[in-house]
């Protein structure tokens, strides 16, 4: 019986830990990719579903948004400087990729907020 | 069977109790978080102005109209200070199409808005012994760091323009500007964002906002602290890395954080590297062992003026300048990626380096 008690305790513990892990994992997966053009929300995508989308930015410019393996990235753009293409892919809440010429902002939004309120550059 | 079930019962009950407790704990701790910020989530808006991205976040108000008002205000200042907008006051001044004033051949009437920032600009001209110089326009107009075919000016063209650069040849008297030489012009790019950030802060305070973050393309100015009483966390961007990577994070309470660095705008051509902080005495980018300077000050205009000045002065003289000023601190990043802090930094600002 003592052995069975232990087994049961183990099972309960496993369920509890499992539940905790599940809740935490779900939090991360709940992140959303928000695309803004000229300050207005243009489109939203879940970060955990792979997708490719051509964003029509300001002045007829375009940026190619690629969501893959839980990361959002700009891989192609019509803008002259391509600063947005050079910027690394993002996956944490609060992180952004910005394309100034096309007035496009890619932003991750989710439960796990970035600790920073601003970055000086 | 029934006997063993009975024996299991206390354990099962205990298990259920444990889970219930855990759930309650999670719910309670979540509620506590909400109690801390009874006025709700912060609101944030971004806009493209001043050739950069502007983000304003309010932590103690849900009134989006206040942010819209701030954006409008920034737009109004841009219409005065822009070097490239053909309708701006600065453009007209640089092209001699502003209303003439009595005085010299090149005397013009200017608005209070322009006169005020010019006064500040001349102050930083003196403080930096001419290394911060708003009359650099004849030089900066030749450089183009942004467009597809970035332009590196001809040496001859730069040399022709150099004699036109000297802030001492700009005379400001009340609302009159006089250029002592034909062809002079002004570029407020190294000071306008800081100056405008201060005006936005004044506006927000007038609107009753006590907790906000103003970010004008990386020129950061905090209004107060977070509603819970915590300081804001402001990161310093890692040079030449992604916009979201930082070298250090600081606790900031109502202060301004402004950086100047060679990684912001530059042209790489063959083996040459040209960044956007131009030496008014040569017409070419400054060459020293600095990558970036970050200034923490009360007024953002000071941070903006000082970051350029300090970059130009170099590590040693730049540190000296900051240490001679009250309530002003700086981090210098040298090309070995070493961080240098001014005297008293750690006593006044909590900072964590990110490796």
From TrEMBL, chain A:
<feature type="transmembrane region" description="Helical">
    <location>
        <begin position="6"/>
        <end position="25"/>
    </location>
</feature>
<keyword id="KW-0472">Membrane</keyword>
<dbReference type="InterPro" id="IPR038690">
    <property type="entry name" value="NusG_2_sf"/>
</dbReference>
<keyword id="KW-1133">Transmembrane helix</keyword>
<keyword id="KW-0812">Transmembrane</keyword>
<dbReference type="Pfam" id="PF07009">
    <property type="entry name" value="NusG_II"/>
</dbReference>
<protein>
    <submittedName>
        <fullName>Uncharacterized protein</fullName>
    </submittedName>
</protein>
TrEMBL record, chain B:
<keyword id="KW-0479">Metal-binding</keyword>
<dbReference type="Pfam" id="PF02424">
    <property type="entry name" value="ApbE"/>
</dbReference>
<dbReference type="InterPro" id="IPR024932">
    <property type="entry name" value="ApbE"/>
</dbReference>
<dbReference type="InterPro" id="IPR003374">
    <property type="entry name" value="ApbE-like_sf"/>
</dbReference>
<dbReference type="GO" id="GO:0005886">
    <property type="term" value="C:plasma membrane"/>
</dbReference>
<feature type="binding site">
    <location>
        <position position="304"/>
    </location>
    <ligand>
        <name>Mg(2+)</name>
    </ligand>
</feature>
<keyword id="KW-1133">Transmembrane helix</keyword>
<comment type="function">
    <text>Flavin transferase that catalyzes the transfer of the FMN moiety of FAD and its covalent binding to the hydroxyl group of a threonine residue in a target flavoprotein.</text>
</comment>
<keyword id="KW-0812">Transmembrane</keyword>
<keyword id="KW-0460">Magnesium</keyword>
<dbReference type="GO" id="GO:0016740">
    <property type="term" value="F:transferase activity"/>
</dbReference>
<feature type="binding site">
    <location>
        <position position="308"/>
    </location>
    <ligand>
        <name>Mg(2+)</name>
    </ligand>
</feature>
<keyword id="KW-0274">FAD</keyword>
<comment type="similarity">
    <text>Belongs to the ApbE family.</text>
</comment>
<keyword id="KW-0449">Lipoprotein</keyword>
<keyword id="KW-0997">Cell inner membrane</keyword>
<dbReference type="GO" id="GO:0046872">
    <property type="term" value="F:metal ion binding"/>
</dbReference>
<feature type="binding site">
    <location>
        <position position="190"/>
    </location>
    <ligand>
        <name>Mg(2+)</name>
    </ligand>
</feature>
<keyword id="KW-0285">Flavoprotein</keyword>
<keyword id="KW-0472">Membrane</keyword>
<keyword id="KW-1003">Cell membrane</keyword>
<protein>
    <recommendedName>
        <fullName>FAD:protein FMN transferase</fullName>
        <ecNumber>2.7.1.180</ecNumber>
    </recommendedName>
</protein>
